[in-house]
Write a structure and sequence with these properties.
GO molecular function, one term: (3R)-hydroxyacyl-[acyl-carrier-protein] dehydratase activity
Number of strands: 6
CATH architecture: Roll
Strand content: 35-45%
Distance between the termini: 39 Å
EC number: 4.2.1.59
Radius of gyration: 15 Å
Family: Belongs to the thioester dehydratase family. FabZ subfamily.
Main location: cytoplasm
Oligomer: single chain
Helix content: 10-25%
Order of helices and strands: HEEHEEEE
CATH superfamily: Hotdog Thioesterase
CATH topology: Thiol Ester Dehydrase, Chain A
Function: Involved in unsaturated fatty acids biosynthesis. Catalyzes the dehydration of short chain beta-hydroxyacyl-ACPs and long chain saturated and unsaturated beta-hydroxyacyl-ACPs.
Largest sheet: 6 strands, antiparallel
Strand order of the largest sheet: 1-2-4-5-6-3
């Protein structure tokens, strides 16, 4: 097992997400303002497998994209070097070039990677990729922004 750079306890402090939507288990690599690599252990207990699909459980593509967005948010929050307050969230602004290339099933370990391509005027653009056993499952460009909510 790879030793976490950011463990689940810190992830829970950085992200507002909770079960069943928290989709990052640990961060194993981090370069400030550059890149991040995180893990999601996919288990049969995931609530979406009840209906997607009962006879052949497959992780929904939107959940893989959400896991990548959470990973990108961790990259931004951790790069800031300070704990975000509970009113700071990262919102999706856009998803470009999403391509799904491999089915993700229970028992797989999803490796989540994101790279900051641009950060300007509070808008972040990331290149993101999720893979299983070195094989790309999904890749996309994500655009997000941080906002305070009341």
């Amino acid at each position: 097992m790879t030793k976490p750079v950011i463990d689940i306890h810190k992830i829970l402090k950085l992200l507002p997400h909770r079960y069943p939507i928290l989709l990052v288990d640990r961060v194993v690599e981090f370069e400030k303002d550059q890149r991040i690599k995180a893990l999601k252990n996919v288990t049969i207990n995931e609530p979406f497998f009840v209906g997607h699909f009962p006879n052949r459980p497959v992780m929904p593509g939107v959940m893989m994209l959400e896991a990548l967005a959470q990973t990108a948010a961790l990259l931004s929050f951790e790069s800031m070097g300070q704990q975000p307050d509970e009113n700071t969230v990262v919102y999706f602004l856009g998803i470009d070039g999403a391509r799904f290339k491999r089915v993700v099933e229970p028992g797989d370990q999803l490796v989540l990677e994101a790279w900051i391509e641009r950060a300007k005027a509070g808008i972040y653009k990331y290149k993101a990729r999720a893979s299983v056993d070195g094989e790309t499952a999904v890749e996309a460009e994500l655009m997000c922004t941080m906002r305070k909510v009341a």
